[in-house]
Each structure stands twice: as C-alpha cells, then as structure tokens.
Design goal:
Elements: H1 3-25, H2 38-50, H3 53-66, H4 70-75, H5 78-85, H6 92-107, H7 116-120, H8 127-138, H9 147-156, H10 166-178, H11 187-201, H12 224-227, E1 244-255, E2 258-263, E3 274-275, H13 282-285, E4 289-290, E5 294-297, E6 301-311, E7 323-327, H14 328-332, H15 338-351
Parallel strand pairs: 1-6
Antiparallel strand pairs: 1-2, 2-3, 2-7, 4-6, 5-6
Helix pairs in contact: 1-11, 2-3, 2-8, 5-6, 9-11
The structure holds iron/sulfur cluster.
C-alpha cells in the first residue's frame, strides 16, 4: 500500500482507536476527573507537569483542603501557597498558581476563560495545559501536546526528527489538531485517552507493546516505530543539558530556640523562598560548627550543602531586612526548600532529644 494512503487512513482512525481504548482501559477514577471544574482541572494539570501521579494523588487532595477554590487561593499569601507546595519541587509552579489565581479573580471575575488562547495568556499556563483546561472544563475543541503526547505521535507516525526544534514542534501541533475527533462529545475521552495512553501504555521506557504478556496496543498494526523496530529510538533523544555541581555553605544561626532564615532573591534557585543565610557576620562565623552535609539535585544542578551551626545565645546579632527569627515549627510551616526542611527536622529532633 502506498505510504501516503496508509498515513491518511491512520490519521482518520487514530481518534476512533484511541477513544475505544480509553473507554475500556483508560483511567476513569482520578480525583480531578470527578466534579470537573476549571479550578480542579487547572490545579491537577499544573501539579502533574513535573510530579508523579502517585504523589499528586495525595498532594492534590491536601491542596484542595487548604485552598478549596480559586478565591481562597487568590486571598492567600504566596508564602502560604509555597508552604502547601513544599516538597514537590519546581516552585515556580506554585508562584504562578498564586499569580494566576489573582489574575483570574481581578481580570476575569473569578472565572477561568473557556477560550484556549485566553487561557494561555494566564501565568504558568502553556498551550497544552490551556487546551486541557478548555477541553475538560468547557468541552472546547483544542489539541494537547505535552511530552507524553509528542512521544505517542512520534512513534505511531515514525517521526524521527528532533522534536526540540520549534519548526518540528510546530508541525506536530498542526498534526495534533488534524487528529481531533469530529464529534464534540468525543473530545473529553479522546484527550483523556492521549494522556492515559502516553502515561500507562506507550511509556518512555518499556512501552507495553515490548512485553509479551501485555494487552494488544490499539495501534499495533499501524505504528511505524514498531514496524521499523525503532521504538526505543523514537522520539529522538536530545543531548541532556550538563548538570553543574555547586557547593554552598548555609549558616544555621540559633538564638533563644529560634532559627534565622532569610528570604531568597526573586531570581535564581528557590526564588522568593525562605532558606538559611549563605553569608553571615564574619566574626560570628568563626565559631561555626560543621554539621552533616546535605546533597540535593535540581534540574540542572547538583548541590552539596555544608550547614554550619552557630549557637548565638549570648551574642548580639544585627540581622538583614530580608532575615527573620523563627520558632522551628513556624519555620517548617513556611514554604521552605526540601534541604531546609530536612535540616529543620534534624534540629527539632536534637532539641527534643529524640
Ligand atoms: S506499538 Fe508500541 S510504540 Fe507503537 S504506539 Fe503501541 S505502545 Fe507505542
């Protein structure tokens, strides 16, 4: 069969096969699939961007308990939101959630717009997330194209191009749009199907079609990557950005059972979050006692942190305007990065003699 005709047939049937698969084998009971409001869908989409589903399942419910609706989120301080987000990493997401909630309250009367183009203008919402919100909350016709979907389309159509290049991504967006089902009623199952299929079947490593006992892939006969024996080569893996090693000193200043934290600058690692000072009074730091080193991995950095304990009970200390003394438990309740949290928990254990 000529390649062109086969490709057209696949374009035509892709949505049909995917919807049938989703209805039978897709996910139907995720918390954000129940009572689908734009707020709940948006929150789940942002959380799922860089966090595993198993973690999101827990944290999503906790977040909703603290901020049950857009208004409560917009009224909170950014520190409250960061504190609830603590431990999930990629804190820009939390800051953007807060910003976005405020913009929707002030510029859209507290209601998320239904138009994907308007949604994409909101802080922290990219094109694919905007489409997901528009489809799931408002039944709009829009295509999603996150990392999972790119992989599925690339494999099924055997696209070997470098998808990190914007020209290639643009072509894929156009393709994704042509694949949308005709019937509006099918859009939710189709979009959910794309997400589910990429997350549970055509996974990055070990897609189920490679396992003998797995159920049959709905695209078994059509998948070009499979036919070419190139499943593991598609999509093309681009060179990873080099990870930089970074050494840091943190000064753990303690006075009257309180610990000194400082608000980090709004740019750079852990922007705007509370952390231990990296610089401190030169005279006082001479008395610093090294504590156990802490390692922490960020997207492009591997940090080795040397915490230095400073017992300042009898010292007069002048602190900077961005610094503040906190009772340990209050410090823990702030939006603090994971290594700060680890050190604070250790300090509490030592204080309580655990
Ligand atoms: S045959 Fe394998 S690679 Fe192709 S779509 Fe199915 S699961 Fe993915």
């Amino acid at each position: 069969m000529p390649k062109e005709i086969k490709k057209n047939a696949l374009d035509k049937n892709f949505a049909k096969y995917l919807i049938a698969w989703q209805k039978k084998d897709g996910r139907h009971h995720l918390p954000w699939q129940i009572n689908r409001t734009a707020y709940r869908v948006w929150l789940s989409e942002i959380m799922l961007q860089q966090t595993q589903v198993s973690t999101v399942l827990i944290r999503y419910q906790e977040f909703l308990k603290r901020f049950p609706d857009l208004r409560s989120l917009a009224m909170a301080t950014v520190d409250d939101v960061l504190s609830e987000w603590s431990g999930m990493g990629y804190y820009t997401r939390a800051r953007n959630l807060h910003k976005c909630a405020r913009v929707v309250m002030s510029e859209h009367d507290g209601i998320f717009p239904s138009d994907p183009v308007a949604l994409e203008k909101l802080p922290g919402i990219g094109r694919s997330t905007a489409a997901a919100i528009a489809v799931f909350s408002y039944g709009q016709r829009a295509a999603i194209l996150d990392g999972n979907v790119k992989r599925v389309l690339a494999r099924v159509w055997g696209i070997e191009a470098d998808l990190s290049k914007s020209a290639e991504t643009k072509k894929l967006w156009t393709h994704a749009e042509t694949l949308l089902p005709k019937k509006p009623d099918d859009l939710v199952a189709y979009t959910q199907g794309l997400m589910d299929f990429g997350a549970t079947f055509c996974t990055q490593y070990g897609p189920l079609c490679l396992s003998e006992k797995s159920p049959k892939c709905p695209f078994n006969k059509d998948c070009v990557a499979k036919a070419l024996g190139k499943i593991e080569q598609i999509p093309l893996k681009v060179k990873k950005v080099k990870v930089i090693r970074l050494d840091m000193n943190w000064w753990i200043a303690i006075q009257k059972n309180k610990v000194l934290l400082e608000k980090r600058p709004n740019q750079g690692i852990w922007a705007g979050m509370w952390s231990f000072p990296e610089k401190f009074n030169d005279v006082l730091t001479k008395k610093g006692q090294p504590m156990q080193k802490v390692s922490h991995v960020l997207t492009h950095r591997r940090l080795t942190i040397q915490p230095m304990m400073l017992d300042l009970n009898k010292q007069k200390v002048v602190i900077e305007p961005n610094q503040q003394w906190f009772v340990f438990e209050d410090a823990l309740a702030l939006g603090v990065p994971k290594p700060v949290r680890t050190i604070l928990l250790n300090l509490i254990q030592v204080r309580d003699g655990v």
